[in-house]
Amino acid sequence: MKDQPSPIRETDDEARKLARVLLRSARHAAIAVLDPETGFPFASRVLLATDIDGVPVILVSRLSAHTKALAKDPRASLLTGEPGKGDPLAYGRLTTQCMAEPVENGHPFHERIRTRFLNRHPKAKLYIDFPDFLFFRLKPERASLNGGFGRAYHLDGRDLIIQSPANEEIAAKAAETVRDLVERHPDVAAMLAVRLNAPESASWRICGIDPAGFEIISGDLLVRYEFETLAVDSDHICSNISKIAYSIP
Q1: pLDDT digits (tens, 9 = 90+) for 159-195
Q2: How far apart are the first and last CA of the chain?
Q3: Long-range contacts of the stretch 8-16 (C-beta < 8 A, 24+)
């Protein structure tokens, strides 16, 4: 009997980029945890953002079932990727297995994560500082990418993390960097939306930057762009964004 060919393709740079975009462009995700009482998988929906190193971040109530589960067992799985018209299975999706790390008020990363989360989810300002809410960083351990029929890949967690010595410096200057860029080029977000073929909207804005790329957002719409190479500092990010926005197509 002949061996069946493996459905898993060799992971290449194109697959890694698609996986990163599926994770970093998601505003929400399905999360699966392990019920501490029964051991059964428990799935729910969470709002999603990313930290400066690309690690997914969620904001949850201590009263929710998935928060209680993560307190007992930090293992979790995220499903990201939006279906479109037609067969939902024809569209890319990413399952990321993660280890959850709580980030409460007073944690060294808390203020940075809070700012980045609100930039993506401004309505969360209504409850983000309630004492019964906290963040989790969900550090990727491994991932399974399905890019559509016949395009399955396995990824290591390191494929999804931004491993750059510039992370902390860029994070500290992120708000100032975006503010200065918009002051020099008031139409930069609108131009980026045109260049990236984003859906028509009158209110695009840059909502996040990191060494690997940036996001623009308009209401419930979000577009992620990945640089070809990691930026080394904030000036490099501004230069990359300006070239994308104002280069001749």
Answers
A1: 999 999 999 999 999 999 999 999 999 999 999 999 9
A2: 54
A3: 8/152, 8/153, 8/154, 9/151, 9/152, 9/153, 10/153, 11/153, 11/154, 11/155, 11/159, 15/145, 15/147, 15/151, 15/153, 15/155, 16/155, 16/159
pTM (two decimals): 0.93
| Phi-psi label, residue 8: left if phi above 0, alpha if psi -120 to 50, beta otherwise | beta
Which of 116, 130, 145, 132 minimizes the C-alpha distance to 208? 116
How many other CB atoms are found less than 10 A from the CB of residue 183?
A: 9
Whether residue 44 contacts residue 65, with contact meaning beta carbons closer than 8 Å, is answered with yes
The H-or-E segment that residue 142 falls in is: strand 133-146
Strands 28-34 and 152-156: unpaired
Q: Which two tokens stand for residue 30?
A: 């399905």
Would you list the DSSP string of 80-102? E----SS-GGGS-EEEEEEEEEE
**CA dihedral sign of residues 61, 63, 67, 71:** positive
- Describe the crossing of helices 174-184 and 234-246 by its angle, rounded to 10 degrees: 40
3-state secondary structure of 6: coil
